[in-house]
Design a protein that fits this description.
Helix 2 links the parallel strand 1 and strand 2. The longest helix is centred in the middle third of the chain and has 27 residues. The chain has a domain of 190 residues: TIM Barrel. It is globular and about 55 Å long. The relative contact order is 0.17. It is built from ten helices and eight strands. Strands 1, 2, 3, 4, 5, 6, 7 and 8 form an eight-stranded mixed beta sheet that branches. It has 292 residues and is α/β, with parallel strands linked by helices.
């Protein structure tokens, strides 16, 4: 069992709850199983956690069953992370507190998974031409039946010693503009928001500082997101600094968006962890006020 950092224990969100509304399991590109994620969150004394795997909700029932069996005092918020296309940018939208059995949600998940499968096959074909055979099967094995993502192909290349870091796999082979890159076939931003709303959830722009958008383009994204009835924005994610956090909080106030926080946890590392460094000022409107 892992010990909790004492300093972190006192860094509660809005001085009330310790939460993390963005993390991944082996059902997509995370390295820990749903059970392991819940164990880790419980050890860190997290009050509420959302599992937000890429275009799948398969982890939710597994995690909730485990919580019930162990009688853990933690609230699981059902979530998903949809990959969308907006103005030729790939923008990720979180759906939080969703009904995982909603028909429209399940239909969009099936559509997204089909697009993921097609992309994975084409990416593997390009990697074969680059001299790396059988990458599709190796990536599928790493996915363990979950969603195949580019991260799995990065791990394949890293495990084979082709690249020295996972990031270099993107920089040299599978990132945009490189020889094994395949343009995604994602749904639109508007479609993801509409489906999340129909599933009774709150839609949130995930890690807005990851998209390399200028302040002007970020504002354009927010305007379109709001026009599509989007709800919130992730203002703290992973290693965002205080200046970036404060800027995103200002945008939330300006555009009447709700703030969300999440580690975007994929695997244990020294830079980020579940529930770590996710504090917000008291006066920040938060997305989880709707299900407290």
């Amino acid at each position: 069992m892992m010990s909790t950092d004492p300093e972190e224990k006192t860094s509660n969100i809005n001085n009330s709850l310790r939460v993390d509304f963005h993390c991944h399991t082996t059902c997509s590109d995370g390295h820990l199983s749903p059970k392991e994620i819940i164990d880790r969150a419980t050890n860190y004394q997290i009050d509420q956690i959302a599992i937000t795997d890429h275009d799948t909700v398969n982890a939710i029932s597994l995690a909730q069953d485990y919580i019930d069996q162990q009688q853990f005092n933690i609230r699981l918020v059902s979530g998903i992370e949809f990959s969308t296309l907006w103005q030729n940018f790939e923008i990720h939208v979180l759906g939080l507190n969703i009904d995982c059995n909603n028909p429209e949600l399940l239909a969009l998940i099936a559509k997204q998974q089909e697009g993921r499968e097609q992309r994975a096959i084409l990416m593997a074909e390009k990697l074969t031409k680059a001299g790396f055979e059988n990458c599709y099967q190796d990536a599928k094995d790493l996915a363990q039946g979950g969603s195949i993502t580019r991260s799995h192909f990065a791990r394949v290349l890293f495990n084979r010693g082709v690249v020295s870091t996972l990031q270099k796999a993107f920089d040299k082979y599978i990132g945009k503009g490189n020889r094994a890159y395949v343009k995604p076939l994602w749904c639109s931003l508007e479609e993801a928001i509409e489906v999340i709303n129909k599933a009774g959830g709150r839609s949130v722009i995930a890690h807005p500082k990851k998209y390399d958008l200028s302040a002007k383009w970020l504002r354009r994204l927010i305007v379109d997101f709001k026009d599509a009835n989007g709800n919130g924005m992730e203002v703290v994610s992973g290693q965002r600094n205080d200046q970036q956090r404060d800027f995103l909080i200002e945008l939330c106030h300006e555009y009447q968006l709700e703030a969300s926080v999440g580690s975007d946890f994929h695997f244990p590392n020294r830079w980020s962890d579940l529930g770590k460094h996710l504090a917000l000022p008291e006066n920040t409107p938060v997305v989880w006020q709707h299900w407290n």
